Amino acid sequence: MTEFAFTASDLYSMLPITLILCLGIFVQSAAGFAAGVLIIPVLLWCGYTIPAAQSALLVATIPQNVWGVWSLRDQIKPRSIVWPGFGRVAVLPVGVWVLHSMESLPTQTIRQIVGGVVLFAAIATVYVKPTPRSHLHPVWAWLAFPISGFLQGVVGMGGPPMVFWVQAHDWDTKQTRGFLFAMYLVSLAPALAILYFAFGDRIVAPGLLAAASIPALWISSVFGLRFGTWLGKDRLRRLTLVLLMVLGVSGLASPWLR
Q1: pTM
Q2: How far is CA 112 from the centre of its chain?
Q3: Between 168 and 8, where is the model more confident?
Q4: Is 193 exposed, middle or buried (0-12, 13-18, 19+ CB in 10 A)?
Q5: Bigger pLDDT: 124 or 33?
Q6: 8 A C-beta contact, residue 56 and residue 210
Q7: What's the farthest any 2 CA atoms get from each other in the chain?
Q8: Per-residue DSSP letters for 89-113?
Q9: DSSP codes of every residue in 195-258
Q10: Distance CA 87, CA 126 (A)
Q11: What is the average pLDDT score of the chain?
């Protein structure tokens, strides 16, 4: 599989990558989820590796997460993110180690693994409906956040376990979004540092490309919010889930698709 090359001569050829990032951020803003589970498999289908896709995704989400934490800072309780954040970040190196070991696998096998994760996440989103309550037993946090960190490290898609955990609380929308923005933000720097330690300069170019795309990504985020309001998040959510299921099945069937 190829890696990003950030040179003037092939910048034009990278336009599809920027468009993919914009699409993921657009959907994330409109539907409230799916940036990672959409961007990672599509970039894989374009021939890029998971580390390259992860680097681009992490950098692309920095403005959105910073703005989300700032705008919802009154809803975020620092004590509530300390242990979940620790559990998520502590297991990140394990996921990245598994990812490093996976590089010897055939491309089709890697696509199948990612496709399986995407399909499982989409199906779980449809059928897992936690009952909101004021308090959860701590064991659920010690399951959800390490799993989130592991999935973030190995396939770049650690959001679903955190989302299910948050949905099990009787929080309002602002509390929910503030917590998730904070969790994503506290793990960004560690995730990039661990990826750099494992893969070196290979992740630098995709990160720079995503950084150069930030103005376009910001516009995508703004239009995504407006589009989600116009279409309705429930309908957009259903469309997004259908798209994710198609991506998941396509990944699983990749050895037979050309």
Answers
A1: 0.85
A2: 18
A3: 168
A4: exposed
A5: 124
A6: yes
A7: 56
A8: HHHHHHHHHHHHHHTTS-HHHHHHH
A9: HHHHHGGGGHHHHHHHHHTHHHHHHHHHHHHHHHHHH-HHHHHHHHHHHHHHHHHHHHTGGG--
A10: 26
A11: 83
Cα–Cα separations (whole angstroms), residue 38 to 82, 117, 199? 28, 11, 23
What letter represents residue 78's amino acid? P
Total residues found in the chain within this entry: 258
Angular region, 34: left φ>0, alpha ψ -120 to 50, beta rest: left
Alpha-helical runs (H) found in 103-172: 107-127, 138-155, 159-167
52 alpha carbon, distance to own chain's centre:
13
Structure tokens at 62: 């920095």
Kindly report the CA angle at 184 between 183 and 187, in degrees rounded to 5? 85
The confidence band for 100, taking pLDDT boundaries of 50, 70 and 90, is: very high
Residue 63: name the closest of 195, 222, 194, 229 by CA.
222
Helices 204-212 and 50-60, axial angle in degrees (round to 10): 30
Query: Tokens 């951020």, residue?
Result: 25
Question: How many C-beta neighbours within 10 Å does residue 139 have?
Answer: 8
H/E run at residue 6: none
Alpha carbon separation from 219 to 60, 106, 173, 237 (Å, rounded): 12, 37, 23, 21
Contacts of 47 (CB under 8 A, 6+ apart): 1, 2
